[in-house]
Amino acid sequence: MDPLIALGIFIAAIVAGLVGALFGIGGGIVIIPVLTIAFGLDIKEAIGASLIGVIASSTGAASRYLSSGLVNIRLGMVMEPFTAAGSIVGAIIAVYLDQAALAAAFGAILVYSAYSMLRKTEAAIPAQDCCYSGLSGRYVDQRTGEEVCYEVRHLRRGLGASFLAGNMAGLLGLGGGLVKVPAMNLWMGVPLRAATATSNFMIGVTALAGAAVFYANGLISPVLAATVAVGVFAGATLGTRVSGRIAVASLRKYFAALLLIVSLLMFLRAAGISVGV
Prior knowledge:
By secondary structure, the chain is mostly helical. It has helices at about 5-25, 30-40, 45-65, 75-95, 100-115, 155-170, 175-185, 190-215, 220-245, 250-270, and strands spanning about 135-140, 145-150.
């Protein structure tokens, strides 16, 4: 790999890891468009590298989120088997789909993600009213110092969303957070910060299941995957350090705009129209 290209991919991977850690989405929404649009790589090869990057992102982010008490471990353990199963199914399907279909599907997921990022529903309840049973959770918000408590609801719907998230992970090289974070936040009553942290805890296992399928089919380049993994790990570590100090809501509008722009580029790519990059 050319050193300048490797440097560009490494920098993009750092940004991907930072974004992935902040929003619990693994970073694939950044690294895949960069690899395919800016560097002209085959989208299946980009997906394979992204899956490795998602594993690195989870490794870099989950430990810090665990120590801060943001991760709902019990909820993650319940949801993850469904996500992993969906990831294997999605990865098998991806091997046989053409690039245009994958690019179009990826663009659609970005539009959905942008819509979800603009919605915010926090379901926290006063700590003294929380029963702390089942899959409920609690944590201390680093920005306000207040204790946040929540009860998990609509578990069956959440498990269905987990399987769909796994499908998207294996099919498009994502960590599944694009589906799981909104599902946990909007459907299951998990506050955004806890949903993001729990998603980061789960996405590594999800990506591993899909990556195994891509590796078995020779779609993972070791040099490319290593470059992405190191960059994403560094970015994810940085993201966890700043996430508690930044109001995530203030980043949503800008991030949603970026997602819509990238989704347009992916739709144009799927239609075979040159985007000039």
